[in-house]
Specification:
Layout: E1 5-9, H1 12-16, H2 19-27, H3 38-48, E2 54-62, E3 65-76, E4 81-85, E5 104-105, H4 110-122, E6 129-136, H5 140-147, E7 153-167, H6 172-177, H7 182-192, E8 197-201, H8 205-225, H9 235-250, E9 254-261, E10 264-274, E11 277-285, H10 294-308, E12 313-319, E13 334-342, H11 346-368
């Protein structure tokens, strides 16, 4: 049986030459998610890769057929280097929170890819930890990490929430009847009878620019009222998503809209369709508005749009077990962070993480002061 061969990409210009290959493989992969979209990956590299970071993207081939993509990069920390997925590892105030990333693997190749990746990474490793954040515990990468049996390496799993995935029903009435919470069902039914609400769906670049500014304003205002700093106060974050939403509009994957009462926006929604799933990413909500339960109204509207576009699933993405998302559907799909560290560097790595956590806390405190 022939071994898989690896094409290793270490420079961004080289990665950019693989756009068509990535997109074709991604579109045919059942576990492809929003945060594995080519534009999410490539734009993150353009906006967030530093001069000391090094791409380590692996394209695996069986003869000349692509069978897997492993989207790694090596991040240089103050003392040590760590292997990560592209889309993670930014400073906390600017992070885009890439969720549910994974290896992209063709059917029937998991075992061969696991073996090849292990051999390629650990025979001559130039890193002292592997940090894989916000992934599903049944994902390829999680299964790969958990089956490793390596001397001097220790794996830690930290469960951080669950995935809330809701099926899109055939009509709005059935959608509402399947909501778990009686209160949320009542709110959704009330919205379905509301006559004074209009929905403006973004379908032009001009509308995108206007609605994106509304999203920024509503989102930041809502968090400021809670005494916290909104994600859209950071210019790296704003610029990344301006470029990403533009790309998603061009590919007809962007779902962005406002709910309005008397021409006043009371909610702005930002989501992306990928692989027959509508991912809810961000929103801005004016809670003291004339529309009761505006958050519920916004999600019901988004599910209506998903239905019109023949999307099968609505992904609330990661949430705590007692999140408001639990009112729509229970979840048993765990989301976790994984850290694989090499002995005896584990204590130094933990110290580095603690130092960065304290630094990020100080930055947040300065912004909210």
């Amino acid at each position: 049986m022939a071994k898989l061969t690896c094409k290793l990409i270490t420079e961004l210009p080289s990665l950019m030459q693989h756009k068509e290959l990535w997109e074709r493989f991604h579109s045919n992969n059942n576990n492809a998610t929003m945060c594995m979209n080519w534009y999410w990956i490539s734009l993150w590299c353009r906006h967030y890769l530093t001069s000391t970071d090094k791409l380590h993207v692996q394209f695996w081939f069986d003869n000349h057929t692509l069978v897997a993509i492993c989207p790694f990069y090596i991040k240089k920390r103050k003392w040590l280097s760590e292997l990560r997925f592209i889309g993670t590892g930014e400073n906390s105030p600017t992070e885009v929170c890439s969720e549910f990333q994974d290896f992209l693997i063709a059917p029937n190749y998991q075992a061969k890819v696991f073996k090849a990746v292990t051999a390629s990474l650990f025979e001559n490793s130039h890193f002292y930890s592997i940090n894989i954040d916000i992934v599903l515990t049944d994902s390829h990468v999680a299964l790969w990490l958990k089956q490793l049996m390596l001397a001097q390496w220790k794996l830690e799993q930290h469960d951080i929430g669950v995935r809330y995935l809701v099926p899109i029903e055939s009509n709005q009435s059935e959608q509402i009847s399947n909501i778990r919470s009686k209160t949320t069902r009542r709110q959704a039914n009330k919205f379905s009878q509301e006559k004074n609400v209009t929905c403006n769906l973004v379908n032009t670049k001009e509308a995108l620019e206007h609605t994106y500014q509304q999203l920024i304003q509503l989102h930041n205002k809502a968090w400021l009222q809670k005494g916290k700093r909104g994600a859209f106060t950071d210019q790296h974050f704003v610029c990344f998503h301006r470029d990403f939403t533009d790309a998603m509009l061009n590919s007809e994957q962007l779902i962005m809209f406002t709910l309005n009462i008397k021409d006043q926006a009371v909610a702005t929604y930002y989501g992306v369709i990928e692989n027959d799933v509508l991912y809810y990413y961000q929103s801005g909500i004016q809670y003291s508005s004339a529309l009761p339960a505006v958050g519920t109204a916004m999600h019901i509207q988004a599910m209506d749009i998903a239905r019109q576009k023949n999307v099968f699933l609505y992904d609330f993405m990661k949430g705590a077990k007692h999140s408001y998302k639990n009112k729509y559907r229970n979840s048993h799909t765990t989301v976790a962070n994984y850290t694989l560290t090499k002995f005896p560097y584990s204590y130094l790595i933990k110290f580095d993480k603690l130092a960065r956590k304290l630094k990020n806390a100080l930055v947040k405190a300065q912004h909210t002061a």
